[in-house]
Amino acid sequence: MNREVLIFIIIIISLFALNSITINHYFSSIHPTHHHHPAASHHRTVETSPSNIPYRRPHPSKPWPIIPSYLPWSMNPNVAVNSCEAYFGNGFTKVADILPAKVASSWFRCHYSETLRTSICEGGKIRMDPLKIEMSRGGEKLEDVIGRREGDELPRFRDGAFVVEGNNGGLKRRNLVGEEFLRKFIPVEGDSRHPIRESVRSIVVVGANDFDCEEWVDEPTLLVTRVEYANLFHTVTDWYSAYVSSRVTGLPNRPHLVFVDGHSQLDETWNALFSSLRYAKSFTGPVCFSHVIFSPLGYETPLFRGLDEEIDCHGVSAHDLQQSPNHHKTARLYEFGEMIRAAFDLPVNIHRAGKAASGHNVLFIRREDYLAHPRHDGTVEQRLSNEQEVFDSLSRWASDHVECKVNLINGLFAHMPMKEQVRAVPRCFGCHRRSRCRSNAPGIRNTEHGAS
């Protein structure tokens, strides 16, 4: 072998070795990057599940969809009280670190909104004991639990329903928060029951020797307690509260969901919006969460507060709001509506499309006799006696005025999956007072007709 060939071979081998080292260094150093809210980053200081605790196989987390109206949720301490952002976005500017994060121990904090008068609380390395939560199992078929009392479906928490580990191994057992903290951060009007307040009140601090689990969940998990779960309006408030809680705490992906209530099945949209769901009573013993968020009640969202409070807010696109900031305008409902449509794999830019070539879909909401919940007798209370006549008349009008391109949709919801309901609602007609057509997509127009 002559000298030139030998030099050429040595050069080729050297280049191959250098290339291999470079590729190995590249792949060993990269990692996925997500935007984390500073307040949520502390849970990374807590150990993941110990090797001696049974481990649940990880469930894949759904990514957040890319939606046109999304605006950052990072906390702005200068957000004006009673502004649209304080009502509908991140007005949770007062943070109480009740149990600061330390390596291998639990942590707990609450984000308080002066505008909404409630808190989003979150923590790491928290144990939930379903045996200390008194309620029905939940998740059953409605037909199997006819007659079950409402009180049986709402949770009651005994001390120790939730447990955190203190910083010292021999720590004396104590409650995490007292009544003064609850009055300031989770106030309640009158003497009404407040499941979220009661769940936080039940949290006790124990030493490491008393912190044991039968199962460990590493993925961020949202705890949701629904009260009026069978009413569409109240359900939307619960969806919105869960969405806001996920964004305020800076979750990089859509969280998993645990219902801390004993209601029967009504889960289609929840499954679409979040990564997975199960009921608290489906756990057979104490379960530990690496990161858990307590979602406020739907009653504490601006959607419900606005029934009694004057909220001076107007919806605009995110682009318009960025061009002309205004405390009395918000794009958060556009964002939420797009989130729902994206969850069902529907297009999210319909408000920019203008009049569709196929015309306007008009959803005519009708009422049928149906079982709404275990205490319902299956008959509706308010219904037009000539409902079919009204629908037929509108159908004839639409047929006679083809230039208007109106597609009248027979809104028999019991026969329409939720995805089809969402697809059908650019225009919404209700033939009774309780149609409650709420905007889950930009540009929806609502009209209600009912007997006086």
TrEMBL record:
Disordered as annotated region, ranges = 37-57
Its keywords, alphabetically, are: Membrane, Transmembrane, Transmembrane helix
GO MF terms listed in the record are:
glycosyltransferase activity
The regions listed as transmembrane in this protein's record are 5-27
Q: What is this protein called?
A: Beta-(1,2)-xylosyltransferase
